[in-house]
Structures are given as C-alpha cells and as structure tokens.
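hiii, so i know i said id send this last week but things got crazy w the move. better late than never?? heres the sequnce for the chain we talked about at the cafe, plus the structure i predicted for it. fair warning i was half asleep when i ran it
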Amino acid sequence: MLLLSVIVPVYNVEKYISSCLLSILENDLDPAEYEIIVVDDGSPDKSMEIVNSLTGKYSNIKIHTQKNSGISGARNSGIRLAKGKYILFVDSDDWLKENSLKNLIQLSEKYNLEILEFGIENIKNDLSVVGEFSNSTGYSILNGIDYYRQVRYVNSVFNKIYKNEFIKKAELFFIEKIYVEDFEFNTRAFLQARLVIAIPDLIYKYRQSPNSITRTKDTNRQLKMIEDHILVLKETYKLVLVQNEKSKLEFLNERISFLVVSIFFLMLKNNFSYNEMKTMKKRLQVDGLYLISTPVHQKNKDLFRRTILLKNFSLLAILNKVPKNLLP
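okay and structure toks below
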C-alpha cells in the first residue's frame, strides 16, 4: 500500500496549480510512497494542460476527470480512488511547506493516528503572511471529543492528515455543493476518532482570497451560506438523536449552538433586516432547532449568544444599524 494519497480538486486555477503541485512533488517523501490524485472537476481553463505537462516527469500524478460537482464532489471522488494509507486534502490554490510530508507520515505511523492536525499560515496574493493558526498536544494522544474540549480543532480539513481506513470505516464523505462542508465532515470525524494529536508546525499555506464566501457581497451567495448552515444544523441534530454518551452529546450540542449563533451572526454582518432575523428565529423554533443553551468556544459569538439571542433578541434591530466594521 502507498503511504499517502494527496487529493487535489482542480477548477479554474491555472495561475496556481503548478506551484501547488510542485510543493507536493518536490517535498521530502519518496515518490514511490505517495500518489497525487488530481480531480479535474470540469475545469474550463488551462489548469489541466499544466497538470498534464507534469505527468511525464512525475509518474505518481493520477488524473480523474468528472463533470463539475464542486470541491466536495471532487474530494469524494478522490477518497474513493485513494490507495494510500493516509489521506491529505490540498486545495489547488494553496501549497505546502517544503520538507514537511515525511515527518507527517512518520508521526502518523509512529502513533497509529486516525487524525493528525498541523498549523496553517494565511497568505495574501502578494505572499505576505496575514495570520496563522496552530495547535499542539505535546505528542499526547487524545480521542476526538477530548481533543475538541482540550485543544479545539480548526474546522478546515486541509490542515489534517486522516487515516484512509478510518475515513472509509466511518463513511466520511462530504455533503456536496455546500459551503460549510468541512465543518460537517469534521464534526463526524472527531465524534468517532480515537487517536488524534496536533503538532504546531505551520505546514499548510492557505491563500486568502478577497472573493471568498466570508467576504462576498453577493446576496445569493450569502443566502446560500445561511441555508447551508441550516442544512448542516439539521444533519448534526440527527447525530444527537442517536447518541447516548454524555461527552459526545456535549460536543454535538456545542456544535449545534455554534451553528445557530453563526446563522444570526452572518445575517447581522450581511445587513439582513430585523424582520428577516425574526422570521429565521421562528423558522428554527418551529423545526426545534433554535438550540442555543450550550456555550460556544468563540468568545465574541458566545457573548452574542448570551446577551442577544437568549435574552434581548430585539436588540438586533439596534445592532442592525451599527456600522459592520464596529461589530466584533
């Protein structure tokens, strides 16, 4: 078995795909030990011409072509095709730190890990670093619930290595064509994981796009983001209904509370009217999903939960008039 499968979805990234792939190909893992599964998600630009130009030199690039189904659909195809013992997701406009893969695999093997988390650098197009995130367990192994309580994972999947056997056994596939797919995937992953560690090394280089969904002014995309939160909220609540372990229920209830708070936080940030927010509250209440009794880990969102959503919902009418750059 190969040690690693790196899954790279490709769509409209001709500016970045070469640097992305070369950061993997020119890393420190023996080419015979890993594969790169490039999923051509119906890319209309010259991205695949660039990928094809590399296949003659690098025989461990495998190409899968499909009709466009979004990043989640591309990742799902990669999971099904993956032959490596471990799986790493890399978005095609990002890249990896040099000489980083061998250590990740050695640690995963040494501790028989199901999930290994590592650090992220947020980088602008001019290559300046604008932020970073990292965790560390000091090589102590935790189960997924204890890891979340003691360390707190970042919601993304691209700063983690997952054991292939664990993904397949836990049936961890992404919900397709939604914006918060990583949140939903990792909720199920950490709910079931038994062997998790984090290292502080800043290995993943995340290209911060000015057109990302968190910065968009497109009303349709904002609406879809909110509806996708509700979809994931419903899926997470289904997990509560079949769970009877106290620690797992606490974990899921926090994730649910976080989603509900995030919905109203997004609506406020994106200038939805107070009446629209009242309608959303009623909608969630009717569905039994206005579940915000559990504190959430982000301080600003927990303050919003406690002071506004639980006690003074009508204050949203006032906050809605406050300039959004003054909101936490």
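btw The two ends are 48 Å apart (CA to CA). thought thatd interest u
miss u guys!!
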